[in-house]
Structure formats: C-alpha cells, structure tokens
Prior knowledge:
heterodimer, A: alpha/beta, B: alpha/beta, three-stranded antiparallel sheet, 6 helices, 16 strands
Amino acid sequence: MKSNDLTVIAVAPNRWQVSALEDVLAAAQRVGGSAQARFGCLLLGHPEPERERLALEAGACTVWTLDPGEADAEDYEMWAAVALAALESSQLWSTPRRVVLLPPGAAGEELCARIAAGNGSVAAGRCEDIRVLDGQLQFDREGWGGRLSLSLITAANDLCACLRADKPSYPGRRMEARLMPLEHEPAPRPQRQIEYRETSEKLPPIESVKTLVCGGRGVNEAGFALLERLAEALDGSLAGSLPAVDAGMVPAYRQVGVSGKFVRPDVYFAVGVSGTPQHLAGISADTRIVALNSDPEAPIFRVADVGVVNDWETILPALLEALGPG
Amino acid sequence: MNIHLLLAGVADIRYPLHAIAVADVDRLEETGHTRRILSPYDESALELALKLRDSEPDLRLVVHLLSGPNDERLLQTVAAHKPDHLEALALLPCAPWDACLTACQLASALQAELDDHSLLLVGREFGDLDGGNLPAALAVQMGLPLLSRVQYLRWDSDGRCWSLRERGTQEEWTLVETPCLVSVSNDKRSKLRHPLMKNVMLARKASYASRRVQISRAAGLQLGSLQIPAERQRGDHCTLLTGDVSQQVESLRACLVGSGADVP
Ligand SMILES: Cc1cc2nc3c(=O)[nH]c(=O)nc-3n(C[C@H](O)[C@H](O)[C@H](O)COP(=O)(O)OP(=O)(O)OC[C@H]3O[C@@H](n4cnc5c(N)ncnc54)[C@H](O)[C@@H]3O)c2cc1C
C-alpha cells in the first residue's frame, strides 16, 4: 500500500478532556505509522490553540477546525452531525481509503457508530489494531471478556474506529503542516428537558490525572473513604472496577476497563483489584501499576511493576499517616 | 408506555471459555459447554424495566433475547422475572461483530412492534463482540433519539419518566419522551433482583417463542482469524515490597510519591 492510498483522520471534540485528543493522536500515529500513511486531525468546537499545537506537534499534516457554536460535551448527535459535515468536505477526502479515528471509550464509541451510520462507513468500534493487508482494511477486536481476539476484514473503503494506543509522541511540526478552518451551520434540533443536581463529587476526572487510585471488589465503603483521601493527598483521582461501580462505591463514569474508561496515568494504584483482562484493558501499557492485594496469587501481580501483599485495612491507614496531613 | 427490552448475553467469565472457531467468513462455531449468562448491562437494563413496571403495573414488558448458545437456560432466567412476552430472536446471519448489520436486523425485527409510546431498552454493550457501537447504530437505524449510558429510570408524581446519568459534579435528569432508545449502564440502583422461586420453577416448564430475521449486507465485516490476545508487556517483573508493615508502607509511599505523584 502506498502512503497516498490511505487517509487517517483523528477526530476529537474540544469540549472533551485533552486526554481524549492525546488518545486519538496516539492511535493516528500508530495506524499512520503501520500503514505508512499521513494523518490529519479534525478538532470540533470552539478553537483551542493549545490543542491545535498538540495535533501539529504530534505530526498531523493538516489540522481542520470546525466550530459549531454552543455545544454540550455529551451531545453526541450534534458532534456526529458536525463531524460528518466536516468529513464530507472534499478537502479531507483525497485517497481511496479512509480511516476515521475517535477517542477510545464509550463516548468515542457512540460517536464512531453515529458517524459510520451517517456516511455508510464500517463501524469498527473498539479495536486493538488497524492495518491494510492485501488491499483491504483489517482490524482486531477482543471479545469474550478479552479472552479471544477476532480479526475482521472489510472490502469497504471507509472505516470508523476507536483504537486504544499508548501515549502519543510529539516529534514536532512538519514543514508542510497547515491549519484549516472549516465552516458548518448545525441544523436546529428539538431540545430535551434536563434538570441538573449537584453531587458531592470533588475529585478531578480520572482521565486527567498523573496518579490514579483504583478500588476493586476487595474494598468496602470504609476502604473507599480512605482511597478518596489518598487520591486527594496524591493530587490524583479515584477509579473503580466494575464490581466497585455495581456496589455504588464510585459512579459509573469512574469505571476503568474494557467497557469503562481507558486511562493513561503515570501511576495506577490498584487496591483490592484482582487484575482481570476486562479491567486491565482500560489501562495503558505504559502506565506503572502498583498493586495492593491480600492474595499473593492475584493475577494483578503478573502485570504490576510494584506489589504489596497485604490487606488494605492494614496498609491504607498507615500509608495516609505516612503521607502526612492533606 | 410499553417497554421493549433487548438482551444479548455473554459467556460467563467465571468459567473457561468454550471452544470457538471461525467456520466461515460470516459464521462462528461455538461448541462444548457454552455458559451464556446475562451481562452486567443486560441485568441492569432488565432491572430498570422491572422497576418501571413495579410502579406502573399496566405497563407491558416485552423481552427480545438474541438467540445463541444455551438459549433455553437464558430464556428461563429471563422468564422467571415474568415479562409479558419473551421471544428469542435468531438473526441470520448472526454477526454480532458487525454493529451496522446487527442494527439493521434488529431494527427490521422491532420496527413494526414499537409505537409512539414505546421505550426500547438495551444494555450499553450488546453481547461479547459489540465494540460499543450497537446502541447508537440501532438508534440511527430506527430513527430513535438515544439516551446513552443511563444509570437509573424513575417515574415522577405526574407519571413522567426521567432518566439519570451522573456527570462529574452533577446528576443529569432527562425527561424521557417516547419513542426512545435507552442504553443502560451498570449502577448500584439497577442490581438485578432475585426472582421468586415459584416463578423460577414455572419458567423451567414453559416454552418460548422464537423468530428469525434474515438480512445480509454487502461490504460488511468478514471474519478473519481468532487468536489468544498476547498478554500486554509492562516492563520488568513485579517488585514485591517486603518487610514488616511499616517498611512496606514506607516503600509504598516512596514509590507512589516518587513516580509522579506530588504530595503537598
Ligand atoms: C461484558 C462485561 C464487561 C466488563 N467490563 C468491565 C470493565 O470495564 N471493568 C472492570 O473492572 N470489569 C469489567 N467486567 C467485570 C470483570 O469480568 C470482573 O468481574 C472484574 O474486573 C473484577 O473486579 P475486581 O478485580 O474488583 O473484583 P475481584 O475479581 O473479585 O477481585 C477482588 C480482589 O480483592 C482482593 N481482596 C479481597 N480482600 C482484600 C483486602 N482486604 N485487601 C486487599 N485485597 C483484597 C482479592 O484477593 C481479589 O484479588 C466486565 C464483565 C463483563 C461480563
């Protein structure tokens, strides 16, 4: 496949966390690198020069921007309509095959499905690898709780996907790189009746921190209260495994894993988490995992960098004390 | 209002996976002891449907279960919760890895059954092979508004239904206007109840309807191969912190603080 046969376009709304942009840039670098294709980046929303710079520094040949005006971060129907309008623009479509990448995670997956349904491309959804082989687009998706990986092939020319990759690199702006504003007037849509109520949440989003503390089924309510204090003391945030969410210890948007969020903190402190493939699928491979588990045979110790075999009841209060008042 | 609930089931992760092979470009062959159970998201969607019906007994609950391995057991599990109607939907070809095709098939099966007062519920992931695309693909295919990753549904005193999703420091309550598709996430409030033993026994004796939906599509997704995913490489082997508790705590503190975390 020649480099000019494939276009890779990374799409990210500016109202989403900056980590979503970094995730999709990392994915574009990976697909672009393996298919020897150049990539572009489509930034949706109110212009953010810092994000444009990130995309250019990551090696995007073109950064398209499109501002639809006032927009809710989670109005996926609107973001999809805006992305579709931009993608229709002939300036973006100059090669026989196109791969549109959305940030990994539930929000990106929804956008992916909407864009694919809107322009007739194939929705690859969550996937592990995308390549061009024998002139056809192929990708891998893990299924059955991450126990088998399925490779899927399409004869179609357009694919929309959410690829989980590690951190992006920033090799610097290309000579020919350019910034191109696009225009689009979104069609008015019926408004929903929504009421908001404040919660007691005070920790930052789990995608945005350097240190993420995560509790699993092995931790009870008292333990989660300690984990919350620990997250604060470490200037980090608090996540949970699926059973922790089910038990009401943390809200659903703090779930890490195959069907939760994909996170890339520097340190991931997993407490009372066994380390199932469904959970580990949500942690970037370049994150350092520190595990605290009472079972020396827990699978988490096979992937952790540092481990403590002990009960959280014994370790957490002492650790908080050692960290000092916070 | 009437509720249609779509369920897919997943292989039980507590047991080794049964034998699965690629039989053809559009067919997987599953053999051996297949243990398909409701997924956490199926369970939450079922519980929310039951909760809505608890306080609105006239509400009709229709469940459509994707046909697959050990249908009978799964149908019985659902039947024990006494839906008003329960059927197995056999999609031909059954290609749950292809969200567009699956959405197209499901839409064709459901379109005639839904009216302006219908609420269609689905777990936020549909089975073992959904890449997170099915609910949105189905909403677009059926022309329905989508409320995604809903954690809870409840009636207000005026008989209106509200959906809850938590977002950062806010709870977002959206008025549910039918017809509508709601994709359901897991939540403490939607933990599936245990059915009455009497209903479990009745469900074992009942027989269930089954429907076939045959639609294929060109340029969809074809199966290539199946592999065991390589375990992700994460640097060196795990360093276990040894010593007594105070030594473990001190090493842990140094390690958490020294590797990126700032302690004031
Ligand atoms: C369709 C589907 C999607 C899923 N998606 C996700 C997902 O996105 N994210 C996710 O996390 N899971 C997901 N799961 C669930 C997954 O299969 C596992 O059930 C889950 O990851 C296990 O979570 P856990 O490690 O917290 O619990 P467990 O596996 O039960 O582990 C608990 C651990 O706590 C330890 N422990 C117990 N007591 C103590 C103590 N006092 N001190 C220290 N350690 C202690 C135990 O030794 C054990 O290792 C999904 C499942 C399905 C079917």
